[in-house]
Amino acid sequence: MSLRSEERRICPRCGESYSYVEKISIGERSYLYAVHYYVDENGRRRKRRCYLGPVDGYEYVSKTHEIIFYGLDKQDRYIRYLEEITDLFNVNEPISTDPEEFKKEFENIMRTRSLVKKISYKIDERLRKILETIVSDIKASLDLLKKDYSDDPQAQDIIKELEAFNKKIDITILDKNFVNEETIRSYVERYLLLKQRLKQLHKALPISGSQASS
């Protein structure tokens, strides 16, 4: 279970909301804790901590392996593990012709190859989900703008941009092979820029009657 964003403040250890992350140093090492506040049976405010792991990774556990293990505060720790595992594969290392060693090497490589295919499939499905989320969010934003800001010039400019972008990225969703990584990154960057513009627009424009009643 990964650490959720600070905005949501959900503890990956117990699943409950927390107030902040506290760093406690012991000697040369620092450790992270999610701090929870609660009211006890006497009505007094209490604090409890959930351990998230060391700041710089698990030193003693990592010594017995060839990769570094991280605490729950590292949201990208699984990606880091994959990067480090990939570095362990030495393609130039000679292959042993001993029957037992050869068989073990072959089976390990075939298992790894199968796992890589599964990972690749899941990544493509997750990427499709990301793109579908962009499309659905853009359509929802268009509906909102047309409903609440149909007469505003600033909103009309953004509506035109959203419609053009929606048409372009919708084609990508229909293409089962997607497009190249550079194009997908450009879509995400454009989406985030449009989201920022929408945020600024909502701050600048007065709330319409339909918004106020919703």
Description:
- With 214 residues, the protein is an alpha+beta fold.
- It has 2 domains: 81 residues, no CATH class; 82 residues.
- It contains 6 helices and 3 strands.
- It has a 3-stranded antiparallel β-sheet with strand order 1-2-3, with no helix packed on it.
- Helix 3 runs antiparallel to helix 4 and helix 4 runs antiparallel to helix 5.
- The longest helix is centred in the middle third of the chain and has 50 residues.
- The N terminus and C terminus are likely disordered.
Write the layout of secondary structure elements.
Elements: E1 20-26, E2 29-39, E3 45-54, H1 59-63, H2 77-88, H3 99-148, H4 153-174, H5 181-204, H6 209-213
Antiparallel strand pairs: 1-2, 2-3
Helix pairs in contact: 3-4, 4-5
Summarize the structure.
The chain is α+β, with helices and mostly antiparallel strands and 214 residues long. The chain is 55% helix and 13% strand.
Radius of gyration: 25 Å
Number of helices: 6
Distance N to C terminus: 35 Å
Give the overall silhouette: flat
**How would a textbook summarize the main sheet?**
3 strands, antiparallel
The tally of beta strands, per DSSP, is 3
Order of helices and strands: EEEHHHHHH
Main structural class: alpha+beta
Widest sheet: strand ordering: 1-2-3
Q: Determine the strand fraction and express it as a percent band.
A: 5-15%
Can you give the mean pLDDT? 78
Helix content: 55-70%
Tell me the number of structural domains.
2
Contiguous uncertain segments of 5+ residues: 1-7, 60-64, 209-214
